């Protein structure tokens, strides 16, 4: 745990240095696309009254001055599969964004979607003897959290205090300066497969870039696609990507659970490719232009020309009805949503006061999904687009860019991970584990 802790502290110091210089890049490494946004940070006074900066951006005013996306190569299930191909794709995206921004970028904050995330809820408490809570006390209470055995080859990616309690008053977001006798904390820890993270960091370094931060894309998508009252009252964000579907649950503006399903929009394309016996590129085009999950009587009559360059004239002139296409797509979309529902049930999502679910990510744009999802996931479901961020080109405002935009907000205004204090690393007794929802039931 201490190794990644040190690494993340170094990254945070790098990010602060990059922000002082005024330019930092955001890198969204996905299975179907790699996106790069270049952010310029100006003094807070310059944009204070300007519109379009999401409330979460705080006073760290920034604008997007460069953006580029390229087709992802060498990434499967949100994890790097072929290092050189991914490196080439990252270089292409970064160079495109640098060219548009007309500036060179050295530091990037990256997000990725795989690595088998697992959530833990931790709790710790210390005696204060009636004094005001200091930063030292916060460090001590965080260190008092009993770290569960997270398993070999796993590291902590996010660790955030989600609730402080001082004596009998719970639900405090920052107890510093308040007086009491006993300070308790509930913490959410997200662990990931350490080799996947190492590969991402190594790949970015091979592109002659410094890593100034790394985040889970489920977390980043939740920051940008959930509006403020959803983050406050409790909501789940389902980020439907190409190779993986990430889910995150937020309450009281903190992420309290994250998970990932190794299925996404690329699996739908693959089913179309096999079902219609057409190349991948043609299957993707058919899905984008004609896809859906609800068939009506009209769809039996609507014929879709498949096209192709196989040289077999009969095969290339085939048509299928839209109903057949929907018949191929719907079972896979249902499977993805059912997997997501199982993960939400396991997390105890039904105990939240608000059961809002927001679908985002490229695969959430399949027509009819907003009608199918409530039947499988439960009632309140909406399709979410990322918050507006200043300077964002029109092409990058769609649901497919939710995690990239969320990462902008995360880079500009990080949620005080670890609160950046020197936590004594000696006290991590692996005794008990409180699950991610237990503290919620106890405290709210």
How would you sum up this structure, described in words?
- This protein has 444 residues and is α+β, with helices and mostly antiparallel strands.
- It has a domain at 118-189 and 420-443: Dna Ligase, domain 1, CATH 3.30.1490.
- The protein is 37% helix and 26% strand.
- The protein has 15 helices and 18 strands.
- The strands form 5 sheets. Strands 3-2-1-6-11 form a 5-stranded mixed β-sheet, sandwiched between helices. The protein has a 5-stranded mixed β-sheet with strand order 14-13-12-17-18. Strands 7-10-8-9 form a 4-stranded antiparallel β-sheet.
- Helix 13 links the parallel strand 17 and strand 18.
- The longest helix has 26 residues, at 322-347.
- It is globular, with a radius of gyration of 23 Å.
- The model is unreliable at 44-60 and 416-444 (pLDDT under 50).
């Amino acid at each position: 745990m201490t190794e990644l802790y040190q690494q993340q502290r170094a990254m945070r110091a790098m990010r602060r240095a990059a922000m002082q210089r005024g330019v930092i890049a955001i890198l969204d490494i996905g299975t179907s696309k790699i996106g790069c946004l270049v952010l310029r940070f100006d003094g807070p006074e310059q944009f204070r009254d300007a519109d379009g900066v999401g409330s979460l951006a705080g006073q760290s005013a920034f604008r997007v001055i460069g953006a580029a996306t390229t087709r992802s190569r060498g990434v499967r299930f949100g994890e790097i599969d072929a290092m050189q191909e991914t490196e080439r794709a990252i270089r292409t995206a970064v160079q495109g964004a640098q060219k548009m921004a007309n500036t060179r970028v050295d530091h990037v904050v990256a997000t990725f979607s795989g690595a088998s995330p697992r959530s833990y809820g931790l709790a710790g408490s210390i005696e204060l003897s009636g004094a005001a809570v200091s930063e030292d006390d916060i460090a001590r209470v965080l260190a008092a959290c009993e770290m569960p055995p997270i398993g070999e080859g796993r590291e902590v990616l996010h660790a955030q205090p989600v609730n402080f309690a001082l004596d009998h008053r719970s639900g405090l977001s920052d107890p510093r300066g308040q007086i009491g006798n006993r300070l308790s904390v509930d913490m959410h820890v997200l662990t990931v497969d350490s080799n996947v993270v190492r590969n991402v960091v190594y790949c970015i370094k091979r592109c002659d870039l410094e890593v100034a931060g790394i985040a889970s894309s489920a977390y980043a998508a939740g920051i940008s696609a959930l509006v403020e009252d959803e983050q406050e009252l409790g909501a789940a964000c389902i980020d439907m990507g190409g190779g993986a579907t990430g889910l995150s649950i937020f309450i009281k503006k903190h992420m309290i659970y994250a998970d990932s399903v190794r299925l996404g929009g690329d699996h739908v394309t693959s089913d179309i490719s096999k079902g219609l016996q057409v190349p991948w590129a043609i299957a993707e085009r058919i899905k984008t232009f004609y896809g859906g999950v609800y068939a009506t009587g009209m769809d039996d009559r609507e014929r879709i020309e498949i096209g192709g360059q196989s040289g077999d004239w009969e095969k290339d002139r085939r048509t299928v009805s839209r109903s057949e296409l929907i018949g191929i797509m719907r079972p896979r979309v249902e499977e993805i949503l059912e997997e997501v529902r199982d993960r939400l049930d396991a997390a105890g999502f039904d105990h939240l006061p608000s059961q809002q679910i927001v679908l985002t990510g490229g695969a959430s744009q399949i027509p009819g999904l907003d009608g199918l999802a409530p039947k499988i996931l439960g009632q309140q479901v909406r399709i979410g687009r990322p918050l507006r961020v200043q300077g964002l080109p029109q092409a990058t405002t769609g649901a497919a860019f939710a995690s990239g935009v969320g990462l902008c907000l995360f880079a500009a205004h990080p949620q005080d991970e670890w609160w950046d204090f020197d936590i004594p690393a000696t006290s991590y007794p692996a005794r008990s584990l409180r699950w991610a929802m237990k503290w919620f039931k106890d405290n709210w």
